[in-house]
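Fig. S4 source data, part A: sequence.
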Amino acid sequence: MDDVTEGWEDGWRAFHHGVRVGRCWVGPPWEGPPADAIAVVIDPGRAFGTGAHATTRLCLELLQDVEPTSLLDVGCGSGVLSVAAAKLGFAPVTAVDIDDVALETTRANAAANGVSVDVATELRPASLAVMNIALDVVERMLLQLPVERAITSGYLDRDEPRVEGWRRLERQVRNGWAADLLERA
């Protein structure tokens, strides 16, 4: 253990920086947001999601383009999309994940941001869902979602969710990744 670098546990912080996405700024608690931004402060802890990945940014862009309504965040990870949605006026917001660490991290990030996010292990009815997860999971979940519309991402721009009963309204692409706004057909 003599060759372990001191401070290795927090070394990842040097690579985690805030990003501006439309009206929102998503970043860590050790950085300050621009004065004119809606600050979404996220400490990912051991959960997935800092807000910097293209798929998260695409979902945030689409969230800012739709009218705030009830929202279901499927596969919430660190809660980036749940917290941002609540700050953008979506309510109620329900964050769902199968990982206990993700649920606890989302709960902590919602509290740190002063927003109300209901953390759950089961799907609940909402007007809109957001899913930033693998394409096969998106397609499987679309069949089960108790929603009328969905923002989906987590897949390359050459891919697209193909699920009977759903049609695409809008697509955003960035750095080879895609996000779609879908509605029930």
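Fig. S4 source data, part B ends here. The domain at 47-184 is CATH 3.40.50.150 (Rossmann fold).
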